[in-house]
Amino acid sequence: MARAGLTTKRLIQAGADLADESGFDQVTVSALARRFDVKVASLYSHLKSSQDLKTGIALLALEELADRGATALAGRAGKDALIALANVYRDYAGEHPGRYAAAQLKLTPEAAAASAGSRHSQMTRAILRGYDLTEPDQTHAVRLLGSVFHGYVSLELSGGFSHSAPDSQESWTSILDALDALLRNWPAQQ
Amino acid sequence: MARAGLTTKRLIQAGADLADESGFDQVTVSALARRFDVKVASLYSHLKSSQDLKTGIALLALEELADRGATALAGRAGKDALIALANVYRDYAGEHPGRYAAAQLKLTPEAAAASAGSRHSQMTRAILRGYDLTEPDQTHAVRLLGSVFHGYVSLELSGGFSHSAPDSQESWTSILDALDALLRNWPAQQ
DNA sequence: CCATTTGCCTAAACCCTTTAGGCAAATGCA
DNA sequence: TGCATTTGCCTAAAGGGTTTAGGCAAATGG
Protein backbone atom coordinates (compact mmCIF):
# COMPACT_ATOMS: atom_id res chain seq x y z
CA MET A 1 0.00 0.00 0.00
CA ALA A 2 1.38 3.39 -1.00
CA ARG A 3 2.30 5.75 1.80
CA ALA A 4 0.65 9.08 2.33
CA GLY A 5 3.82 11.01 3.08
CA LEU A 6 2.75 12.53 6.36
CA THR A 7 5.06 14.83 8.23
CA THR A 8 4.48 16.99 11.27
CA LYS A 9 4.89 20.08 9.15
CA ARG A 10 2.39 19.00 6.51
CA LEU A 11 -0.10 18.03 9.21
CA ILE A 12 0.16 21.39 10.90
CA GLN A 13 -0.18 23.23 7.60
CA ALA A 14 -3.23 21.19 6.70
CA GLY A 15 -4.63 21.73 10.18
CA ALA A 16 -4.22 25.47 9.72
CA ASP A 17 -6.06 25.32 6.40
CA LEU A 18 -8.80 23.29 8.02
CA ALA A 19 -9.06 25.91 10.76
CA ASP A 20 -9.47 28.68 8.21
CA GLU A 21 -12.09 26.76 6.29
CA SER A 22 -14.18 25.32 9.11
CA GLY A 23 -13.21 27.17 12.25
CA PHE A 24 -10.48 26.44 14.76
CA ASP A 25 -12.81 24.43 16.99
CA GLN A 26 -13.38 22.01 14.12
CA VAL A 27 -9.69 21.13 14.08
CA THR A 28 -9.42 17.55 15.31
CA VAL A 29 -6.97 14.75 14.70
CA SER A 30 -9.87 12.79 13.21
CA ALA A 31 -10.81 15.46 10.71
CA LEU A 32 -7.17 15.78 9.72
CA ALA A 33 -6.91 12.02 9.17
CA ARG A 34 -9.98 12.15 6.91
CA ARG A 35 -8.36 14.95 4.92
CA PHE A 36 -5.29 12.78 4.28
CA ASP A 37 -7.41 9.67 3.78
CA VAL A 38 -5.53 7.89 6.45
CA LYS A 39 -6.44 6.21 9.73
CA VAL A 40 -6.50 8.37 12.84
CA ALA A 41 -3.86 6.43 14.72
CA SER A 42 -1.36 7.06 11.93
CA LEU A 43 -1.16 10.71 12.83
CA TYR A 44 0.11 9.91 16.29
CA SER A 45 3.51 9.03 14.87
CA HIS A 46 3.82 12.68 13.91
CA LEU A 47 1.81 14.44 16.61
CA LYS A 48 2.11 13.94 20.31
CA SER A 49 -1.54 14.83 20.89
CA SER A 50 -4.46 16.85 19.71
CA GLN A 51 -3.19 19.71 21.86
CA ASP A 52 0.17 19.42 20.14
CA LEU A 53 -1.53 19.95 16.79
CA LYS A 54 -3.35 23.04 18.01
CA THR A 55 -0.21 24.48 19.54
CA GLY A 56 1.59 23.85 16.26
CA ILE A 57 -1.05 25.81 14.37
CA ALA A 58 -0.78 28.64 16.87
CA LEU A 59 3.00 28.80 16.48
CA LEU A 60 2.67 28.72 12.70
CA ALA A 61 0.21 31.61 12.77
CA LEU A 62 2.43 33.66 15.07
CA GLU A 63 5.39 33.10 12.72
CA GLU A 64 3.42 34.00 9.61
CA LEU A 65 2.10 37.12 11.29
CA ALA A 66 5.57 38.15 12.40
CA ASP A 67 6.91 37.59 8.88
CA ARG A 68 4.19 39.73 7.38
CA GLY A 69 4.81 42.38 10.00
CA ALA A 70 8.53 42.50 9.30
CA THR A 71 7.85 42.92 5.58
CA ALA A 72 5.28 45.62 6.20
CA LEU A 73 7.54 47.60 8.51
CA ALA A 74 10.54 47.57 6.21
CA GLY A 75 11.24 51.13 5.09
CA ARG A 76 8.38 52.65 7.04
CA ALA A 77 8.33 54.88 10.10
CA GLY A 78 5.93 56.88 12.22
CA LYS A 79 2.26 56.84 11.35
CA ASP A 80 3.03 55.00 8.15
CA ALA A 81 4.54 52.14 10.09
CA LEU A 82 1.72 52.18 12.61
CA ILE A 83 -0.90 51.79 9.92
CA ALA A 84 1.09 49.15 8.08
CA LEU A 85 1.51 46.91 11.12
CA ALA A 86 -2.07 47.41 12.24
CA ASN A 87 -3.30 46.32 8.84
CA VAL A 88 -1.11 43.25 8.93
CA TYR A 89 -3.04 41.97 11.93
CA ARG A 90 -6.44 42.97 10.62
CA ASP A 91 -5.87 41.60 7.13
CA TYR A 92 -4.37 38.37 8.39
CA ALA A 93 -7.34 37.80 10.66
CA GLY A 94 -9.69 38.47 7.76
CA GLU A 95 -7.86 36.12 5.42
CA HIS A 96 -7.08 33.45 8.00
CA PRO A 97 -9.68 33.51 10.76
CA GLY A 98 -8.88 30.00 11.92
CA ARG A 99 -5.16 30.65 12.12
CA TYR A 100 -5.83 33.92 13.91
CA ALA A 101 -8.06 32.17 16.43
CA ALA A 102 -5.28 29.63 16.97
CA ALA A 103 -2.83 32.44 17.69
CA GLN A 104 -4.98 33.38 20.70
CA LEU A 105 -4.41 30.01 22.35
CA LYS A 106 -2.95 30.26 25.80
CA LEU A 107 0.47 28.71 25.33
CA THR A 108 2.51 26.97 27.96
CA PRO A 109 5.47 29.08 29.11
CA GLU A 110 7.85 26.88 27.11
CA ALA A 111 5.80 27.14 23.93
CA ALA A 112 5.40 30.87 24.44
CA ALA A 113 9.15 31.28 24.82
CA ALA A 114 9.77 29.36 21.60
CA SER A 115 7.12 31.35 19.74
CA ALA A 116 7.39 34.46 17.63
CA GLY A 117 5.75 36.38 20.48
CA SER A 118 8.84 38.42 21.20
CA ARG A 119 9.15 39.39 17.53
CA HIS A 120 5.68 40.89 17.82
CA SER A 121 6.49 43.11 20.76
CA GLN A 122 9.79 44.07 19.08
CA MET A 123 7.88 45.20 16.01
CA THR A 124 5.50 47.30 18.03
CA ARG A 125 8.44 48.78 19.87
CA ALA A 126 10.06 49.58 16.54
CA ILE A 127 7.05 51.64 15.54
CA LEU A 128 7.40 53.70 18.68
CA ARG A 129 10.88 54.78 17.64
CA GLY A 130 9.07 57.20 15.37
CA TYR A 131 7.48 58.82 18.39
CA ASP A 132 9.02 60.51 21.37
CA LEU A 133 8.35 58.12 24.22
CA THR A 134 10.74 56.96 26.88
CA GLU A 135 10.46 54.13 29.36
CA PRO A 136 8.18 53.22 31.02
CA ASP A 137 5.71 54.99 28.73
CA GLN A 138 7.06 53.10 25.77
CA THR A 139 6.09 49.81 27.36
CA HIS A 140 2.67 51.14 28.25
CA ALA A 141 2.24 52.21 24.63
CA VAL A 142 3.37 48.81 23.36
CA ARG A 143 0.70 47.23 25.51
CA LEU A 144 -1.92 49.72 24.38
CA LEU A 145 -1.21 49.09 20.72
CA GLY A 146 -1.25 45.34 21.25
CA SER A 147 -4.57 45.64 23.04
CA VAL A 148 -6.17 47.77 20.36
CA PHE A 149 -4.95 45.65 17.47
CA HIS A 150 -5.99 42.42 19.09
CA GLY A 151 -9.18 43.78 20.62
CA TYR A 152 -10.46 45.46 17.50
CA VAL A 153 -9.72 42.53 15.22
CA SER A 154 -11.26 40.07 17.58
CA LEU A 155 -14.43 42.11 18.10
CA GLU A 156 -14.69 42.62 14.35
CA LEU A 157 -14.22 38.91 13.72
CA SER A 158 -16.93 37.96 16.19
CA GLY A 159 -19.33 40.22 14.36
CA GLY A 160 -19.40 43.08 16.82
CA PHE A 161 -19.21 45.83 14.23
CA SER A 162 -21.18 44.38 11.38
CA HIS A 163 -24.66 45.53 10.51
CA SER A 164 -24.23 48.91 12.15
CA ALA A 165 -23.12 52.24 10.78
CA PRO A 166 -20.54 53.53 10.30
CA ASP A 167 -18.54 51.03 8.37
CA SER A 168 -15.87 49.10 10.26
CA GLN A 169 -13.21 50.31 7.85
CA GLU A 170 -14.09 53.90 8.69
CA SER A 171 -13.73 53.28 12.43
CA TRP A 172 -10.46 51.49 11.86
CA THR A 173 -8.98 54.42 9.96
CA SER A 174 -10.26 56.87 12.52
CA ILE A 175 -8.91 54.83 15.42
CA LEU A 176 -5.46 54.65 13.84
CA ASP A 177 -5.53 58.42 13.34
CA ALA A 178 -6.45 58.79 16.98
CA LEU A 179 -3.68 56.46 18.14
CA ASP A 180 -1.15 58.37 16.08
CA ALA A 181 -2.30 61.62 17.67
CA LEU A 182 -2.13 60.04 21.09
CA LEU A 183 1.41 58.76 20.57
CA ARG A 184 2.50 62.21 19.45
CA ASN A 185 0.96 63.72 22.60
CA TRP A 186 1.33 61.07 25.26
CA PRO A 187 0.19 62.63 28.55
CA ALA A 188 2.78 63.36 31.19
CA GLN A 189 2.68 61.37 34.42
CA GLN A 190 -0.34 62.42 36.47
CA MET B 1 -34.99 7.88 44.73
CA ALA B 2 -34.81 11.53 45.80
CA ARG B 3 -34.65 14.07 42.99
CA ALA B 4 -31.70 16.37 42.47
CA GLY B 5 -33.74 19.49 41.74
CA LEU B 6 -32.13 20.39 38.45
CA THR B 7 -33.27 23.46 36.59
CA THR B 8 -31.82 25.17 33.55
CA LYS B 9 -30.84 28.15 35.66
CA ARG B 10 -29.04 26.10 38.29
CA LEU B 11 -27.23 24.15 35.59
CA ILE B 12 -26.01 27.29 33.89
CA GLN B 13 -24.89 28.81 37.19
CA ALA B 14 -23.02 25.64 38.07
CA GLY B 15 -21.56 25.54 34.57
CA ALA B 16 -20.30 29.09 35.05
CA ASP B 17 -18.69 28.14 38.36
CA LEU B 18 -17.11 25.14 36.71
CA ALA B 19 -15.75 27.39 33.96
CA ASP B 20 -14.16 29.71 36.53
CA GLU B 21 -12.63 26.83 38.43
CA SER B 22 -11.39 24.65 35.59
CA GLY B 23 -11.48 26.74 32.44
CA PHE B 24 -14.24 27.28 29.95
CA ASP B 25 -13.03 24.47 27.71
CA GLN B 26 -13.54 22.04 30.57
CA VAL B 27 -17.26 22.82 30.66
CA THR B 28 -19.03 19.71 29.41
CA VAL B 29 -22.43 18.23 30.05
CA SER B 30 -20.67 15.22 31.51
CA ALA B 31 -18.66 17.24 34.00
CA LEU B 32 -21.80 19.07 35.03
CA ALA B 33 -23.64 15.78 35.58
CA ARG B 34 -20.82 14.58 37.81
CA ARG B 35 -21.06 17.80 39.80
CA PHE B 36 -24.76 17.16 40.48
CA ASP B 37 -24.17 13.43 40.99
CA VAL B 38 -26.66 12.64 38.30
CA LYS B 39 -26.59 10.73 35.03
CA VAL B 40 -25.61 12.68 31.94
CA ALA B 41 -28.85 12.06 30.06
CA SER B 42 -30.80 13.70 32.86
CA LEU B 43 -29.42 17.08 31.95
CA TYR B 44 -30.94 16.90 28.51
CA SER B 45 -34.38 17.58 29.95
CA HIS B 46 -33.09 21.01 30.91
CA LEU B 47 -30.53 21.75 28.21
CA LYS B 48 -31.02 21.43 24.49
CA SER B 49 -27.36 20.67 23.90
CA SER B 50 -23.85 21.25 25.07
CA GLN B 51 -23.77 24.36 22.92
CA ASP B 52 -26.92 25.55 24.65
CA LEU B 53 -25.13 25.29 27.99
CA LYS B 54 -22.18 27.29 26.75
CA THR B 55 -24.39 29.96 25.25
CA GLY B 56 -26.26 30.17 28.54
CA ILE B 57 -23.02 30.77 30.42
CA ALA B 58 -22.06 33.46 27.91
CA LEU B 59 -25.39 35.23 28.33
CA LEU B 60 -25.11 35.01 32.11
CA ALA B 61 -21.66 36.55 32.02
CA LEU B 62 -22.78 39.37 29.74
CA GLU B 63 -25.68 40.14 32.10
CA GLU B 64 -23.50 40.07 35.19
CA LEU B 65 -20.96 42.32 33.50
CA ALA B 66 -23.65 44.77 32.42
CA ASP B 67 -25.09 44.83 35.94
CA ARG B 68 -21.70 45.56 37.43
CA GLY B 69 -21.12 48.22 34.82
CA ALA B 70 -24.42 49.94 35.54
CA THR B 71 -23.63 50.02 39.24
CA ALA B 72 -20.13 51.34 38.63
CA LEU B 73 -21.32 54.11 36.32
CA ALA B 74 -24.04 55.37 38.63
CA GLY B 75 -23.14 58.87 39.75
CA ARG B 76 -19.89 59.02 37.82
CA ALA B 77 -18.89 61.00 34.75
CA GLY B 78 -15.84 61.79 32.64
CA LYS B 79 -12.56 60.15 33.50
CA ASP B 80 -14.04 58.82 36.70
CA ALA B 81 -16.64 56.90 34.74
CA LEU B 82 -14.08 55.73 32.21
CA ILE B 83 -11.90 54.25 34.91
CA ALA B 84 -14.82 52.71 36.74
CA LEU B 85 -16.18 50.88 33.71
CA ALA B 86 -12.75 49.79 32.56
CA ASN B 87 -12.10 48.28 35.97
CA VAL B 88 -15.41 46.44 35.87
CA TYR B 89 -14.21 44.47 32.86
CA ARG B 90 -10.72 43.91 34.16
CA ASP B 91 -11.82 42.90 37.65
CA TYR B 92 -14.58 40.65 36.39
CA ALA B 93 -12.16 38.86 34.10
CA GLY B 94 -9.75 38.43 37.00
CA GLU B 95 -12.40 37.10 39.34
CA HIS B 96 -14.27 35.04 36.76
CA PRO B 97 -11.91 33.99 34.00
CA GLY B 98 -14.15 31.18 32.82
CA ARG B 99 -17.23 33.37 32.64
CA TYR B 100 -15.20 36.03 30.86
CA ALA B 101 -13.97 33.50 28.31
CA ALA B 102 -17.57 32.40 27.78
CA ALA B 103 -18.57 35.99 27.08
CA GLN B 104 -16.24 35.93 24.07
CA LEU B 105 -18.23 33.14 22.42
CA LYS B 106 -19.44 34.01 18.96
CA LEU B 107 -23.20 34.07 19.46
CA THR B 108 -25.81 33.40 16.83
CA PRO B 109 -27.57 36.60 15.71
CA GLU B 110 -30.67 35.66 17.73
CA ALA B 111 -28.68 34.97 20.90
CA ALA B 112 -26.71 38.15 20.38
CA ALA B 113 -29.92 40.17 20.03
CA ALA B 114 -31.29 38.67 23.25
CA SER B 115 -28.03 39.31 25.07
CA ALA B 116 -26.91 42.23 27.20
CA GLY B 117 -24.61 43.25 24.34
CA SER B 118 -26.49 46.44 23.63
CA ARG B 119 -26.34 47.45 27.30
CA HIS B 120 -22.58 47.29 27.00
CA SER B 121 -22.33 49.65 24.06
CA GLN B 122 -24.86 51.93 25.74
CA MET B 123 -22.66 52.12 28.82
CA THR B 124 -19.60 52.99 26.79
CA ARG B 125 -21.60 55.62 24.96
CA ALA B 126 -22.72 57.01 28.30
CA ILE B 127 -19.12 57.57 29.30
CA LEU B 128 -18.53 59.58 26.16
CA ARG B 129 -21.21 62.06 27.21
CA GLY B 130 -18.53 63.45 29.49
CA TYR B 131 -16.39 64.23 26.46
CA ASP B 132 -17.05 66.43 23.51
CA LEU B 133 -17.48 64.00 20.64
CA THR B 134 -20.14 64.01 17.97
CA GLU B 135 -21.10 61.34 15.50
CA PRO B 136 -19.45 59.54 13.83
CA ASP B 137 -16.45 60.06 16.11
CA GLN B 138 -18.49 58.93 19.07
CA THR B 139 -19.04 55.54 17.46
CA HIS B 140 -15.37 55.28 16.58
CA ALA B 141 -14.54 56.05 20.20
CA VAL B 142 -17.03 53.45 21.45
CA ARG B 143 -15.28 50.88 19.29
CA LEU B 144 -11.85 52.00 20.42
CA LEU B 145 -12.76 51.72 24.09
CA GLY B 146 -14.36 48.32 23.54
CA SER B 147 -11.24 47.16 21.74
CA VAL B 148 -8.86 48.37 24.43
CA PHE B 149 -10.89 46.96 27.32
CA HIS B 150 -11.34 43.61 25.69
CA GLY B 151 -7.90 43.48 24.16
CA TYR B 152 -6.01 44.42 27.29
CA VAL B 153 -7.95 42.09 29.54
CA SER B 154 -7.63 39.22 27.18
CA LEU B 155 -3.89 39.69 26.68
CA GLU B 156 -3.43 40.01 30.42
CA LEU B 157 -5.47 36.88 31.03
CA SER B 158 -3.45 34.87 28.56
CA GLY B 159 -0.30 35.85 30.39
CA GLY B 160 1.02 38.41 27.95
CA PHE B 161 2.03 40.97 30.56
CA SER B 162 3.15 38.80 33.41
CA HIS B 163 6.78 38.35 34.31
CA SER B 164 7.86 41.56 32.66
CA ALA B 165 8.31 45.04 34.02
CA PRO B 166 6.56 47.30 34.51
CA ASP B 167 3.67 45.90 36.44
CA SER B 168 0.44 45.34 34.54
CA GLN B 169 -1.44 47.58 36.97
CA GLU B 170 0.91 50.41 36.13
CA SER B 171 0.33 50.04 32.40
CA TRP B 172 -3.41 49.83 32.95
CA THR B 173 -3.48 53.11 34.85
CA SER B 174 -1.25 54.77 32.32
CA ILE B 175 -3.35 53.54 29.41
CA LEU B 176 -6.54 54.85 30.99
CA ASP B 177 -4.85 58.22 31.50
CA ALA B 178 -3.85 58.19 27.86
CA LEU B 179 -7.37 57.27 26.70
CA ASP B 180 -8.82 60.09 28.78
CA ALA B 181 -6.38 62.51 27.21
CA LEU B 182 -7.21 61.20 23.76
CA LEU B 183 -10.95 61.57 24.27
CA ARG B 184 -10.46 65.15 25.41
CA ASN B 185 -8.41 65.85 22.27
CA TRP B 186 -9.87 63.64 19.60
CA PRO B 187 -8.15 64.55 16.33
CA ALA B 188 -10.19 66.33 13.68
CA GLN B 189 -10.92 64.51 10.45
CA GLN B 190 -7.74 64.18 8.39
C1' DC C 1 19.95 -8.30 -1.58
C1' DC C 2 18.98 -8.63 2.91
C1' DA C 3 18.49 -6.09 7.59
C1' DT C 4 16.80 -2.31 9.62
C1' DT C 5 14.01 1.48 10.04
C1' DT C 6 9.90 3.83 9.23
C1' DG C 7 5.04 4.49 8.21
C1' DC C 8 0.57 3.29 8.30
C1' DC C 9 -2.53 -0.31 9.82
C1' DT C 10 -5.95 -2.95 13.15
C1' DA C 11 -7.74 -3.33 17.62
C1' DA C 12 -9.29 -1.70 21.77
C1' DA C 13 -10.14 1.33 25.82
C1' DC C 14 -11.98 5.55 27.37
C1' DC C 15 -14.64 9.83 27.34
C1' DC C 16 -18.24 13.10 25.61
C1' DT C 17 -22.79 13.87 23.14
C1' DT C 18 -27.33 12.87 22.12
C1' DT C 19 -31.79 10.29 21.56
C1' DA C 20 -35.35 6.80 22.98
C1' DG C 21 -37.99 4.71 26.12
C1' DG C 22 -39.20 3.47 31.10
C1' DC C 23 -40.26 3.83 36.03
C1' DA C 24 -41.06 6.43 40.11
C1' DA C 25 -41.74 10.70 42.50
C1' DA C 26 -44.30 14.84 42.68
C1' DT C 27 -48.45 17.34 41.67
C1' DG C 28 -53.22 18.36 41.24
C1' DC C 29 -57.86 17.45 41.32
C1' DA C 30 -61.97 15.19 43.11
C1' DT D 1 -57.23 10.87 51.03
C1' DG D 2 -56.89 8.45 46.62
C1' DC D 3 -56.05 8.37 41.88
C1' DA D 4 -54.46 10.29 37.29
C1' DT D 5 -51.24 13.04 35.19
C1' DT D 6 -47.06 15.26 34.76
C1' DT D 7 -42.36 15.59 35.51
C1' DG D 8 -37.68 14.11 36.59
C1' DC D 9 -34.17 11.09 36.51
C1' DC D 10 -32.94 6.54 34.99
C1' DT D 11 -30.98 2.68 31.69
C1' DA D 12 -29.57 1.60 27.18
C1' DA D 13 -27.43 2.40 23.00
C1' DA D 14 -25.36 4.66 18.95
C1' DG D 15 -21.94 7.71 17.17
C1' DG D 16 -17.66 10.37 17.24
C1' DG D 17 -13.04 12.08 19.11
C1' DT D 18 -8.54 10.71 21.65
C1' DT D 19 -4.92 7.82 22.62
C1' DT D 20 -1.96 3.55 23.20
C1' DA D 21 -0.18 -1.10 21.84
C1' DG D 22 1.31 -4.09 18.70
C1' DG D 23 1.90 -5.76 13.73
C1' DC D 24 2.98 -5.90 8.79
C1' DA D 25 4.78 -3.91 4.68
C1' DA D 26 7.27 -0.36 2.28
C1' DA D 27 11.39 2.32 2.07
C1' DT D 28 16.35 2.78 3.04
C1' DG D 29 21.08 1.68 3.11
C1' DG D 30 25.09 -1.01 3.69
From TrEMBL, chains A, B:
It comes from the Bacteria. Keywords: DNA-binding, Transcription, Transcription regulation. The keyword Transcription applies. PROSITE patterns: HTH_TETR_2. Residues 28-47 bind DNA. Residues 5-65 form the HTH tetR-type domain. GO terms for molecular function: DNA binding. It holds the Pfam family TetR_N. This is TetR family transcriptional regulator. It comes from Streptomyces dioscori.
